[in-house]
User: Which sequence fits this backbone?
């Protein structure tokens, strides 16, 4: 309710069927909830008002849209979130979210045991997309494997952020299929093998 916009939480079928404990760091007391100016309280201590999104006059409509654009800029500047797993100094980064990210972290451990410097990157917010964060994580010579439970959606955001299609590869499953640890590790090994044979990718 901070920005008064619709938020969509993306969850795949596997996450929807999982259960695990959740612990809060501290109790949330109702007395600590901050009053919001948009809350309809019956106008007990203020003039009556209404919330609307319809503006029929050009000037007021433009002002409303300018205010919305300012809100979106604030969201972009303040709400981008992401996390990484063993990504520092990695030669190849597995980019994923949801169930796949958990699998990707296991793949990273297995690949590193076999001498491949792999890491994982998870965009927590898909909008605003953490473009600068993924760009700084995937350095100039780092290869990127985007893994999704789809024909490829987030991969387009990654391409826009990196601006180097040669470094970005995609692995996806559809119809509820989940890329397995074995499939992801096999694909990373294939990409690393191509690089070491001198194809257009660079590994340290």
Assistant:
């Amino acid at each position: 309710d901070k920005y008064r916009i619709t938020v969509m939480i993306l969850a795949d079928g596997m996450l929807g069927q999982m259960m695990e404990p959740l612990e809060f760091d501290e109790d949330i007391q109702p007395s600590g909830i901050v009053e919001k100016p948009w809350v309809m309280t019956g106008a007990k201590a203020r003039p009556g008002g209404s919330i609307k999104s319809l503006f029929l006059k050009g000037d007021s409509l433009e002002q409303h849209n300018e205010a919305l654009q300012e809100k979106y800029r604030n969201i972009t500047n303040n709400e981008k979130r992401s996390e990484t797993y063993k990504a520092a100094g990695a030669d190849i980064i597995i980019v994923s979210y949801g169930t796949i990210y958990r699998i990707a972290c296991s793949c990273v451990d297995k690949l590193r045991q076999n001498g491949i410097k792999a890491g994982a990157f998870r965009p927590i917010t898909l909008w605003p997309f953490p473009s600068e964060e993924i760009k700084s994580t995937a350095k100039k010579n780092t290869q990127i494997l985007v893994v999704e439970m789809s024909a490829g959606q987030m991969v387009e955001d990654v391409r826009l952020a990196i601006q180097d299609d040669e470094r970005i590869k995609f692995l996806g499953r559809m119809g509820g299929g989940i890329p397995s640890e074995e499939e992801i590790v096999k694909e990373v090994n294939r990409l690393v093998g191509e690089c070491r044979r001198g194809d257009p990718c660079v590994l340290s």
Observations:
- The first helix runs from residue 13 to 16.
- The longest strand covers residues 118-123.
- The chain has a mean pLDDT of 86.
- The two ends are 46 Å apart (CA to CA).
